[in-house]
Design goal:
Largest sheet: 4 strands, mixed
Structural class: alpha+beta
Number of strands: 4
Oligomer: single chain
Strand content: 25-35%
Distance between the termini: 27 Å
Radius of gyration: 12 Å
Length: 93
């Protein structure tokens, strides 16, 4: 069963993400600038959908316990070179 991902806006550019897998959870704070959001989505999907799909991408590559507790969304691309092209493909943007 895939992990459950809940994204909640903390302020205009920060989100709290809870990943639940079985009976364990991890909590994360993700920053997302308006410019990076526009670059990846052309505003075709919500910021919450972008972050949720980004976590689905991460969970395909590492366990939730390995995901940083706090990070800026562009950091994913520093670890996974195909992140931006893959997330655009998934979102249809």
């Amino acid at each position: 069963m895939p992990a459950s991902i809940h994204v909640e806006r903390a302020d205009p550019s920060r989100f709290r993400v809870t990943v639940t897998d079985g009976d364990s959870q991890s909590m994360h704070t993700v920053s997302l600038s308006a410019d990076y959001y526009d670059k990846l989505t052309q505003k075709q999907v919500s910021q919450e959908v972008l972050i949720e799909q980004s976590f689905r991408f991460l969970l395909e590559h590492e366990p939730k316990e390995s995901i940083l507790r706090e990070f800026d969304l562009p950091l994913i691309g520093h670890y996974f070179r195909n992140y931006e092209s893959e997330i655009r493909r998934r979102l249809g943007t």
